[in-house]
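Work Package 4 report. The design task specified in the project plan requires that, given a folded chain encoded as structure tokens, an amino acid be chosen for each position. We show below one input record used in the internal validation round.
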């Protein structure tokens, strides 16, 4: 999560909401990282999670990220939750809950919906205070 927080800080430098993500292989090694780049690129899909998942898949040469873990500073939104389910990650770990748009247990629980063919494990609240503080400071300064 500390590496995801470092990524989140990079997002704030370009005016993006400070969210960072890391994809870990089954052995714990880092496959890819990402941070929000919507403002920097003008791409509405350039969320930290989507970018990290794309980079991990490209690095592996395989869209199935079986056994991988997505670590992200903020609970994934519906788009990102759908992407992580489709990529077949084994688990998602997030820091701060997102009561307004979270799709991993707060507002929705897309990732654990029993109607889907894949349901990753969800671990919440890892360094939650630090993740929340980064976001609070960003929006306070805006």
């Amino acid at each position: 999560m500390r590496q995801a927080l470092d990524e989140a800080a990079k997002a704030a430098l370009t005016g993006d909401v400070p969210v960072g993500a890391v994809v870990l292989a089954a052995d714990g090694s880092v496959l890819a990282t990402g941070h929000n780049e919507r403002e920097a690129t003008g791409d509405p899909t350039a969320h930290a999670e989507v970018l990290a998942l794309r980079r991990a898949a490209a690095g592996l040469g395989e869209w199935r990220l079986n056994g991988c873990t997505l670590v992200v500073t903020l609970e994934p939104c519906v788009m990102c939750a759908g992407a992580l389910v489709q990529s077949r990650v084994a688990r998602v770990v997030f820091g701060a809950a997102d009561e307004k748009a979270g799709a991993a247990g707060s507002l929705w629980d897309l990732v654990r919906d029993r109607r889907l063919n894949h349901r990753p494990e969800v671990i919440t609240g890892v360094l939650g205070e630090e993740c929340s503080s980064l976001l609070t400071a960003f929006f306070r300064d805006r």
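Residues 128-141 form the longest helix (14 residues). Validation will be extended to a larger panel in the next phase.
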